[in-house]
Amino acid sequence: MGKDVEEIIMAGFGGQGILFLGKILAEVGMAAGRHVSWIPSYGPEMRGGTANCAVVISTAPIASPIVQEPDTLLAMNRPSVARFQPKVKKGGTLIYNSSLIEGETWRDDLQVFAVPASQIADELGNAKVANLVMAGAYVRHCPFLDYQKVLADLPRLIPAKKAEMAEINRAAFVRGYEYQG
Amino acid sequence: MADKVLMKGNEVIGEAAVLAGCRYYFGYPITPQSEIPAYLSRRLPEVEGVFLQAESEVAAINMVYGAASAGARVMTSSSSPGVSLKQEGLSYIAGAELPCVVVNVVRGGPGLGNISPAQSDYWQATRGGGHGDYRTLVLAPNSVQEIADMTIAAFELADRFRNPVLLLVDGILGQMMEPVQLPAPLSYDLNQKPWALGNPNRKGGRNLCSTIFLDVEQLEEHNWHLYQKYQVVTDEFAKGAYQHLAVETHAVDDAEIILVGYGIISRILKTVVEKARKRGIKAGLVRPKTLWPFPSQVLADLAARTKQFLVVEMSCGQMVEDVKLAVNGRKPVFFFGRTGGTVPSDFEILNEVDKLVRPD
């Protein structure tokens, strides 16, 4: 079964699809039979500003859905690293978008993985799917999510009005999962 | 039963209202509740309902007054500054004894404040809020599932008591997503409201919904009549007729310190209780789910057994007054709060618990 409680923070620029990335993780956690919660940052923020989102995936009902010390940080830009790396639990996981983040000092008590999410998205032809690359990378390192099940579930999670994005989202997810740094 | 779906609290308020038979919504956008009107602007036309974005909150609440007079199930929603604007209309609706549901997704105040979550409208919600001797029932969910269940319950209570019912939700609950099992739709029959202007089978001549009583004796009689109705509400809650809506207790049996909080705070407090017990501190939790009528008896009973209470709110201390009234001096009642849109962490609350339990 893996971990009992997994608290995740994902953060990046507004427009990078951070909230949707969180929604996908909450949906697949729910599909895996776990309790989930999703809380966005909803400050007066705009495209190009910062966005973050907290997701909890738990075998037991979730008491506080507010994440102070995440088990995992998905960092899509540099300000996210500065803000959230110090909060990650000792021994936790940090996955970062190495296309936009370089020259950082990483804590030595974390498992740190680089994924060139923006570059992969660009190669696929749409910068907006960098979030799905991160989702794929997350599933690779998550002990309780089954890759094949999530992949099969993915089409359901793409909004009907963005149906034409289903294929590229899937491709981004697969590339993120398969990436080996 | 349908499967659970992952939905935002605000959108669930909209959907649950539709399931409760609400076909009229009047409102004006304000963060952090704008997903409610956004959702209903799409959803209500699908069920031949009316969605109307009014020119102001004042206009919206008076449209609610009209629709409620006609016997419709009707709702408005807003956030703190907007709910202040609705208070005049709420007083009229309570005075005219009309049912409606008013949602407040509370943000930081006073004044325009900010858009972050807060609980600083407790007094306004539970003390009437507008002018005159009146009460509104106040429900305070702490999860998206409970938002669904309590929205439905709010419509039923409003009709049952011919009174406005407030759903008090903080900004986090409005914005967060959780799995929710949407309840089955309710049937709603206008014929059950013989007083309504819109009731086709009303007896005799016309019905009148009014709040003006120029004769002092008549107004006094009306006010005592309202008071008696509020007594019935209080008695029914006290007797446990609405036990599922009234209060939740957790780990209180052997508790030396009882934490008290509602809404999102109660979930943080549950984490605090777990962490405190791991440290050997016997902590418990009381969560008022209905804020008026307040579950005073539960607290009064526990006052005989526990050593102290700690009330935690996202305000400078409002519900703490109701806890003190319930405990009535039998045990000390302490307070910890964060305000201005700040959400307290479980660490800082645990620190307060530590200080109270181990004062040296």
From TrEMBL, chain A:
SUPFAM superfamilies xref list: Pyruvate-ferredoxin oxidoreductase, PFOR, domain III
A Pfam family: POR
Superkingdom of the source species: Bacteria
Residues of the Pyruvate/ketoisovalerate oxidoreductase catalytic domain: 14-178
Gene Ontology molecular function, alphabetical: oxidoreductase activity, acting on the aldehyde or oxo group of donors
Name used for this protein in its record: 2-oxoglutarate oxidoreductase, gamma subunit
Keyword terms: Oxidoreductase
From TrEMBL, chain B:
Domain spans labelled Pyruvate:ferredoxin oxidoreductase core: 255-344
UniProt xrefs under CDD domains: TPP_PYR_PFOR_IOR-alpha_like
Keyword 4Fe-4S among record annotations: no
A molecular-function term among this protein's GO annotations: oxidoreductase activity
UniProt keyword annotations, A-Z: Oxidoreductase
Sequence ranges assigned to domain Pyruvate flavodoxin/ferredoxin oxidoreductase pyrimidine binding in this UniProt record: 15-202
Gene3D superfamilies: 3.40.50.920, 3.40.50.970
Superkingdom to which the source organism belongs: Bacteria
Protein name (record): 2-oxoglutarate oxidoreductase, alpha subunit
